[in-house]
Amino acid sequence: MSKRVSKKPVPNRIDDRSSQTAKARGEVSQAKVIARLLELGYPVASVYGDNNPADLVIRQAAHWDSVQVKTGWIENGCVRFSTCSVKYTKKRQHHRRNYLGRVKFFIVYCPEIDRYYRVAVEEAPPTRMQLRLGDRAGRGGPPSHWAEDYELKKRLIEISEAA
What pTM value is reported for the model? Predict the structure, then answer.
């Protein structure tokens, strides 16, 4: 007898959005963010429980700041990510709630380009944000949030110097 061989590819990349649940993608992003912060020399503490707005806290200067980790994706030349939580009820209704006043900032991990971004909650729109990739030269139109301005290492250094 011959063995049946599945024709489905085995997912082996964390950036394959179709192969993981949202929760699994979030857990991978959280682990990557923690590792990156530790590489940069920042103390990090995890927050346990699924109903907390903060995923972790990071020590900057003389205080601890709460962080919500988000997984970004590339769409139309931008890194996009959600800036709110969504809770579903038993009646399939959903309620969106932003993080204003509940966490200090977002750290966004985009697995497609292996980049990290830090965005203060006050700077973010209430439901979704996009950080524009690419060259600024020759771009007209309204002001944009440029991804390079939010890169994690740059933003953490600015905060440390200001404190």
Answer: 0.79
